[in-house]
Amino acid sequence: MVSTIHWTTGDTHRSARWHSENATSLPRRTAVADDRTKAADAYRQACEGTALLWQGDFHNARQLLQAMGRRVDRKTPGSGTSLSESFHLHRRGSAHRARVLGKLLVLLDDDYTLALRRAPEVRQACLDAYGPSKGPTAVSLRELLGVIGAHQWRSKGVDVPALGTRVHPHYGVFAPVRGEYVDLVAQAPLPPAVLRSPATGTAFDLGTGTGVLAAVLARRGVDRVVATDISPRALVCARENVQRLGLTDRIEVSGPGLFPEGRADLVVCNPPWLPARPTSPIEQGVYDPDSTMLNGFLTGLSAHLRPGGEGWLVLSDLAEHLGLRTRRHLLDAIEAAQLRVVDRIDTRPRHPRAADPDDPLHAARSAEITSLWRLTP
């Protein structure tokens, strides 16, 4: 069912398709905003549920969005009495911020042209993110800025030292900007089953995203890697990167799904690290409701390993520091799946937020450790 927004310009009644990547519901009311609109008025109307369709200068729209954001931030609750409470306050504040700022809309023409003064060229970015246009479409400016930023990342790529080259993330696919988990997979000792016969070794990369870990395993000499994901966008992205890296003869991208058919000498899984509900496509790389992917990997691992094979679970302990999951819970889940821990390789995160004292979750981030758990049946 197509959702349509309606608004009035002068005496003319107009309408357009409504699109939201994070499944935000259709605005109850839509008013027109332009360069004369004050930030206080825009913020008030957005909080009341009114969407504002911008018809002024593009750069002024960005400034208005920033001014609305400052008003949201001033009213956002501070830290809680515990890290768990701080996390939930932070999530609620982020969701409220997204709802309010998501009310500032722009109109994309039927060829994805953004017909605003001083507007950038967005047609290719929108085509990459949304696919072929289905007619004039209203989207939030905040989302569109994310689409533009994702297109720039896709064009430029993300440097991966372990590969000595770049991978190119697509919109809605988690980018490997946190290199420590890639380095763990690049440096961990390969299982004996792979070392005995690297020419026939097989590995599965579950939740491949950009395909970066599959590429690392192939570059390490694993003869055949099957990379899976539940996201159609990720599958397209991984296939493009595999082709760009010249590894199509070594890597098969399969899905959507978690485990492919058959068994492997090595099964690698880097599931989302926090058991919470994502609020946008890109957050699916960080948040895993009820640890669904983590538990799916653990319970299905033994049935997909060849004799002598290993499963590598790459997981941060940030959830433990935030009180979202205990170490005991993880160990019990490993034991319940009749798995044994052969070794654990730890590393500290190197991303800027881990050293930012102004981050509301700094105490947890500064103590975070990312581990590669080597598991066998």
UniProtKB/TrEMBL annotation:
User: Among its keywords, does the record have Methyltransferase?
Assistant: yes
Query: Which InterPro entries does the record associate with it?
Result: DNA_methylase_N6_adenine_CS (IPR002052), N5-glutamine_MTase (IPR050320), SAM-dependent_MTases_sf (IPR029063), Small_mtfrase_dom (IPR007848)
Task: Name the source's superkingdom.
Answer: Bacteria
Compositionally biased spans, kind Polar residues: 1-10
Q: Which GO MF term does the entry hold, naming one?
A: methyltransferase activity
Record Pfam families: MTS
The UniProt record lists the keyword Cytoplasm = no
Residues annotated as domain Methyltransferase small: 194-316
Q: Name one GO biological process term.
A: methylation
Which key words are in the record?
A: Methyltransferase, Transferase
Q: Where is this region: Disordered?
A: 1-23
Q: Where does the record place Basic and acidic residues bias?
A: 11-20
What PANTHER family would the database entry show? Answer: HEMK METHYLTRANSFERASE, MTRF1L RELEASE FACTOR GLUTAMINE METHYLTRANSFERASE
What is this protein's name? Class I SAM-dependent methyltransferase
The organism is Streptomyces prunicolor
